[in-house]
Amino acid sequence: SRGLGDVYKRQPSNDECSGATAVTVNPDLNCGSVTAGTIQNTTGSAQSNTCSGTANDDVWYSFVATGTVHTVDLLNVSGSPTDMYHSVYAGACGSIGAPLVCSDPNNSTVSGLTPGNTYYIRVYSYSSSTGATTTFNVCVGTPPPPPANDNCSGAISLTMSIDGSCNSVSSSVTGAYDSGISSACFGTPCLLYTSPSPRDRQ
């Protein structure tokens, strides 16, 4: 509930989930379109917070997914405090459910989205202090599509050389994701290839 003094404060229109500000989804990761925001004069929302931090000064944004994976960035954070937190939800404000992502860093990647569905971004400061003056920009980006051989089912067949020369294949891990295959090696993401057995050279 809000006290009488709060009535005279200029609260952001997106102080509650029901007033979430729509954010334009960028077709790439360049953040050519951003949405300005602030947590100044905000209050906590009715939706429970199961992520870290104290959402006593949260504001809400929404976006319509254009793909199955999007990124969320908080840019140009200034004012006080600057330690921000954000989470992403599916569903309606009245039944928001569990967060898809909880992020202390000012950038996150949300996967498993349904194109055409609306998702909500909750932004707040990590601390429980009051009197925040923080301003920022919100960017929702779209990563490039994954390579054709991002998963095992799309592995590219390699031709084995019989004279010691190299048969090169141009590749890039841009847009690649963890394939979920257990590996004793280090590093992600990966691309997958198949190669003939050495006996096939005989």
Task: Spell out the blueprint of helices and strands.
Elements: H1 4-7, E1 21-22, E2 35-38, E3 59-64, E4 70-78, E5 84-89, E6 101-103, E7 107-110, E8 118-125, E9 135-141, E10 156-157, E11 193-194
Describe the model.
There is one protein chain. Helices cover 2% and strands 26% of the residues. The protein has one helix and eleven strands; from the N terminus they run αβββββββββββ. The protein has one helix at 4-7; strands at 21-22, 35-38, 59-64, 70-78, 84-89, 101-103, 107-110, 118-125, 135-141, 156-157, 193-194. The protein is mainly β and 202 residues long. The termini are far apart.
In this structure, how is the largest beta sheet organized?
5 strands, mixed
Uncertain parts: 198-202
What level of helicity do the residues show? under 10%
Q: What would the average pLDDT be, to the nearest integer?
A: 86
Distance between the termini: 80 Å
Total count of helical runs of at least 4 residues? 1
Query: Rounded to an integer, what's the Rg over CA atoms?
Result: 22 Å
How would you sum up the global shape?
A: elongated
Give the spatial strand order of the biggest sheet: 1-3-8-5-6
Strand content: 25-35%
The number of E-state strands comes to: 11
Run of helices and strands = HEEEEEEEEEEE
Structural class: mainly beta
